[in-house]
Specification:
alpha/beta, 22 strands
Length: 495
């Protein structure tokens, strides 16, 4: 009998389910998109029922694709869009409000109020910035604004969770209210050093401890599915936020290993081992994973616009009809033109954290055309990544030679031209894996690890397979000139 691990990858715009074999190959794949809701400027919501229904449907589709039953599934692993916040009634299971998505900015005013007196406290305990991106202020908003929520939560009648907790609750028929350490570390409520919810932070945000889930290892016993869902019970044994799951799927278990995931934006994580590193360069300190009660940490940098720059070329400028066209266009660009795009369409992320600035193009000439704009858009992602890598090196205070390889995944990682230019501009190797679905693989690995289906991390490193390596080819003088031009453009924009 063939056995599989089922990975649920619940993302911002779609839900996916995949079946992984013991050799980490993918046996089945299913995906469903769901609607986005924008009730007001800066507000982004999801209907929790959409998250649930697409999860069940894709899991069933994946099982059906290979004629598998619940008996064929060793375990389920869950990875999720991080920071998205839900609050539901423990008795009925009904959410009191739509899910507030990580992109939502409605709590900017609350973050501004807190920054004057508490920014240092939150940073010291959680490793995070006081930003509406994170879950804590979203939960505080729900408790303040939803009629009756504060009173019900005070009586222990409501449950809070990020998407993983909500799906776990539903999958287990309301038997498990839990999360893992990676998701807990994104809430502004969790002391990443002590490994527990923090009473002082809860009091500041007005959050009663009774609403919070239990925090477990990333690979642990999270209960069993309701037998009516998939024709039998299946153990749930792994949970991690999507970026941490991608790090695990890339087998970045050794301190100094870095991964970058290129989607709409980009998230780069540096494994710093069992010691959390405080950032002096506006990166965040987060939990990379927790296994056997031992927390491993990472420095994380977020880029708001990566693949979105290519979407801008396609949908707004109509320079290309599809993303793969951008690489050949960039390859044929005039090498004498140094066009710099700073894609601050929604502000700049790490290490600048300037939501108020907007994008700009520098160096335009009469000869500038689609080729040069395509190159500028792709290079902008590489320049931003170079900024994150430089900040990581400065924060970790290690030798320049220590960070020698960047492992990449996500849609833009499929562009050979972009990955070569990335290697050129960061001056390090860029490795693209054979298995591109690293986020789902990370969730599957955590579940399979708990059941003995996958080996321990030091042996799982050997399962990672290289598809292509990109080594720096640009001479140092050209690299420094281009990085200086980028830095100058950003500096002018921030003035």
């Amino acid at each position: 009998m063939t056995s599989y691990v089922l990975a649920i990858d619940q993302g911002t715009t779609s839900t996916r389910a995949m079946l992984f074999r013991a050799d980490t190959s993918i046996a089945a794949f299913a995906q469903q998109e769901f609607p986005q809701h924008f009730p007001a400027d800066g507000e982004v919501e999801h209907d929790p029922e959409d998250l649930w229904q697409t999860t069940v449907a894709t899991c069933r589709d994946a099982l059906h694709a290979v004629d598998a039953t619940a008996r064929d599934i060793v375990a389920i692993g869950i990875t999720n869009q991080r920071e998205t916040t839900l609050l539901w009634d423990r008795a009925s299971g009904r959410p009191v409000h739509r899910a507030i998505v990580w992109q939502d900015r409605r709590t900017a005013y609350l973050c501004a109020e807190l920054q004057a007196g508490y920014e240092g406290l939150f940073a010291a305990k959680t490793g995070l910035l006081l930003d509406p991106y994170f879950s804590g202020t979203k939960l505080a908003w729900l408790l303040r604004k939803v009629p009756g929520a504060a009173q019900k939560s005070g009586r222990g009648e409501l449950a809070f969770g990020t998407v993983d907790s909500y799906l776990l609750w539903r999958l287990t028929g309301g038997q498990m209210h839990a999360t893992d350490a990676t998701n807990a570390s994104r809430t502004l409520l969790f002391d990443i050093h002590a490994g527990r919810w923090d009473d002082e932070l809860l009091k500041i945000l007005g959050v009663p401890e009774s609403v919070l889930p239990e925090v477990l290892d990333s690979s642990a016993a999270f209960g069993f599915t309701d037998p009516d869902l998939f024709g039998g019970v299946i153990p749930i044994c792994g949970i991690a936020g999507d970026q941490q799951a991608a790090m695990i799927g890339q087998a970045c278990f050794v301190p100094g290993m870095v991964k970058a995931t290129y989607g709409t934006g980009c998230f780069a994580l540096l494994n710093t081992g069992t010691t959390p590193v405080k950032s002096n360069n506006r990166l965040v300190t987060t939990i990379a994973y927790q296994l056997g009660g031992v927390r491993h940490y990472a420095l994380e940098g977020s880029i708001f616009v990566a693949g979105a720059a290519v979407q801008w070329l396609r949908d707004n400028l109509r320079i290309v009809q599809s993303a793969p066209e951008t690489g050949p266009l960039a390859q044929s660009a005039d090498p004498t033109q140094d066009i710099i795009l700073v894609p601050a369409f929604v502000g700049l992320g790490a290490p600048h954290w300037r939501p108020d600035v907007r994008g700009a193009l520098f160096g335009l000439t009469r000869a500038t055309g689609p080729r040069e704009l395509a190159r500028a858009a792709l290079e902008s992602v590489c320049f931003q990544t170079a900024d994150l890598i430089a900040a990581m090196k400065a924060d970790w205070q290690i030798a320049e030679s220590a960070l020698t390889t960047l492992r990449v995944d996500g849609g833009m990682a499929n562009s050979d031209w972009t990955m070569q230019r990335l290697a050129d501009l960061i001056g390090s190797q860029v490795d693209r894996p054979r298995i591109k679905e690293t986020t789902a693989l990370g969730a599957a690995y955590l579940a399979g690890l708990h059941k003995g289906f996958f080996p321990e991390p030091d042996r799982f490193l050997d399962h990672w397979q290289l598809e292509r390596r990109f080594s720096p080819q640009m001479d140092a003088a050209t690299r420094e000139r281009k990085l200086a031009a980028w830095s100058n453009a950003v500096r002018r924009l921030l003035m």
